[in-house]
Design a protein that fits this description.
Layout lengths: L3 E5 L8 H4 L2 H14 L3 E4 L7 H5 L8 H11 L4 E8 L5 H14 L4 E6 L4 H6 L7 H16 L4 E4 L4 E5 L11 E4 L3 H10 L2 E3 L18 H18 L6 E5 L10 H14 L3 E4 L6 H15 L3
Parallel strand pairs: 1-2, 1-10, 2-3, 3-4, 4-7, 7-8, 8-9, 9-10
Antiparallel strand pairs: 5-6
Helix pairs in contact: 2-4, 2-11, 4-5, 5-7, 8-9, 9-10
């Protein structure tokens, strides 16, 4: 199966708001992605990043559903990917309402990438129990399954109680869920209850992001092999999308031949999606680099 590509909407680039964090920027980059052959555009989720993290390499983010709604309005077919949405940050019913709203208004184009999260001060700022984040993600996925299945939700959660909650209208097709993270719990969660798994290049910061190290192709291949073994153990038979955030493995400093070889190896390992974040000091440069990448690696 040929790899599909998602283009980053660089809404974290708050040093140049008009260039990257505006309705015009989101619309223009999203339209470029669609016209160039990218299957999706994506954003991340950081509602309350702390200053220490921001000052040491962290980044801002718009609300993912608001940002992607602007991309949806400017396009027709391109998928809208949360890469990734931290479900534990929000009440599960409120989160499900945002997911349902974007899925319906975009014509079923949402792909919900989600994960347990890792930024402890952000959890604290939002009043969420960091140590319970995995269970909170499972709880949110339980509620989402029921809501998007059309059920009236009676659910006793860890911090909420719902009785007969009903969300309408329903998406024609519920959005596929991809679970992000490199850890064994993340892999098990993805394989046992999701349509896909979203590992990422840790750039040597695995400890800071509280997950397993994946910064080489060998480490990714080993992780995919473990996921495949676990899928067989639990009897999973349906395919598992694997969306890899490759980072510097595909950046412009590498030759086209080297990047083609890397992509071929990723495809052979079972990767089905790659996220791409073109460099550029201006929106025009980012768009030019996105088009150049598409012409070299997607058009053929």
């Amino acid at each position: 199966m040929t790899i599909s590509y998602s283009l980053e909407l660089p809404t974290h680039r708050v040093e140049a708001v008009e260039e990257f964090v505006s309705a015009k920027a989101i619309s223009e980059i999203a339209r470029t992605a669609e016209a160039s052959g990218f299957r999706a555009v994506h954003v991340t989720d950081h509602p309350a990043p702390d200053a220490k993290w921001l000052d040491h390499g962290g980044h801002h983010a718009l609300d993912p559903f608001v940002a992607l709604s602007f991309a949806a309005a400017a396009t027709t077919d391109v998928k809208l990917l949360t890469n990734v949405y931290i479900a534990a940050y929000r009440n599960p019913v409120l989160g499900a309402k945002s997911i349902q709203s974007l899925a319906v208004l975009s014509g079923d184009r949402l792909i919900l990438g989600t994960a347990a999260g890792y930024l402890k001060p952000e959890f604290r700022a939002l009043g969420i129990d960091f140590d319970n984040r995995g269970a909170l993600l499972d709880e949110a996925l339980d509620v989402l399954d029921k809501v998007l299945g059309g059920d009236d939700i009676a659910y006793e959660g860890s911090s909420f109680s719902s009785r007969g909650v009903r969300l309408r209208p329903l998406p024609t097709t519920p959005p596929p869920v991809w679970v992000g993270g490199n850890s064994r719990p993340a892999v098990r969660r993805a394989v046992s209850r999701a349509a896909g798994w979203a590992p990422f290049n840790t750039f040597g910061y695995a400890a800071a992001s509280r997950t397993a190290e994946i910064s080489t192709l060998e480490e990714l291949e080993a992780a995919i092999a473990w996921a495949t073994k676990y899928a067989a153990e639990i009897g999973r038979t349906e395919p598992l999308d694997i969306c890899f955030s490759a980072g510097n493995l595909l950046d412009d400093s590498r030759s086209a031949d080297e990047r083609h070889a890397t992509i071929a190896r990723l495809e052979a390992a079972g990767v089905t999606w790659l996220t791409i974040a073109p460099s550029g000091e201006t929106r025009a440069e980012v768009i030019d680099h996105a088009r150049a990448f598409a012409e070299e690696f997607i058009a053929g």
